[in-house]
Amino acid sequence: MTDASTATPKTNARPPRRQQLDMADQLKQLQAGAGTDAGADAPAQQQQQPRQASRPPRQKNTGRGPRAQQPQQQKAQAQQQQPQRAPRKVNPVLERLFELYPQLFGARFVPLKLGVYEELIARHPEDFKAEDLKIAMGQHARSTRYLEAVAAGLARHDLDGNALDPVAPEHVHHAILELHRRRMLRNNGNAEELRPQLVARIAKAVEASGLDREAYAVLVRSRDANANAVVDEALAELAEQAAKREALLRAFEASGRSEQEFADMYGMKPGDVTRTLQRVRDDKKRAEAAAAAAAVAATEVQAAPEAEAAPAATDAPAAD
Q1: Confidence grade of residue 24 (pLDDT, cut at 50, 70, 90)
Q2: I need a labelling partner for 66 at 20 to 30 A (CA). Which of 168, 187, 225, 303 fits?
């Protein structure tokens, strides 16, 4: 029997298994630069890490996927790709006008009196050349801020800042149309969306002009069929509103009640009833005054030929 101490060891015997470190110890050794054994085992240890450790954290579902973010990203990229406009240089003549008349050419624009160009030339022959001033005044009058002042019906001002007569109704009307055209260009020509605003603004201009609807239509009528159609629409709305006010006045007069009682009966505010009734009465007075003035003018026109014929009769030679 062979002695166990002298027996040849088996060559296929496995070496003792190296003690496997847990994840925390492996990370500590990697960070501290531990011995050569740990450094050699690092790739194997990294392979043994769970796959989830290399995956990015999942984002919460916010309801906005990549498709929802694409339009915003495309819009931002389009804005970045657009060339940046260089700031527009201010006409030096306008800068000089601002220095001389800040109340007219400053932060607040007001309509200027007719003939202000000639007055500027007369007052400041040393400051302005005629052609340069004409170009600058044209730029000023075509600016959107100046057109807004005209469209609002503000009074015209002289160089001393004194308010004079209001802007003529036809000038207000043309300023409104030009501002509407510029808004259409900024809004990609969407006329249907902006049309109600244009009609309402023209209706206000008609009421502010003090003219009746027929006179206003004659004054601003042009060759532009679309502009004329907008005017007709505004006048039709004003006629409908006037008819409703007159109907309210007739109902009030037939009720025999006070304004408070009438308002309670129809579920209206007493203040609205008072303002509406007063407006109808004022409209009637203006219409009667306009009719009387027209009758006087017609009488004067008919009497003019007779007045012209009278001197001819007195100058005739006397009969023998």
Answers
A1: low
A2: 187
Helix (H, G, I), strand (E, B) or coil at 166: strand
Give the count of alpha carbons within 13 A of 133, CB side only: 19
- CATH architecture for residues 91-167: Orthogonal Bundle (1.10)
What is the structure's pLDDT at 188? 78
Q: Are 136 and 157 in contact (CB under 8 A)?
A: no
Judged by DSSP in three states, 143 sits in coil
Report yes or no: 154 and 164 within 8 Å, Cβ to Cβ.
no
Domain limits of the chain? 91-167, 241-303
DSSP annotation of 6 reads T
Average the pLDDT over 195-222 and give the result.
93
- The lowest-confidence range among 157-166, 214-223, 253-262, 299-308 is 299-308
- Residues 113 and 160 sit within 8 Å (Cβ to Cβ): no
What is the C-alpha to C-alpha distance for residues 179 and 205, in angstroms, rounded to an integer? 14
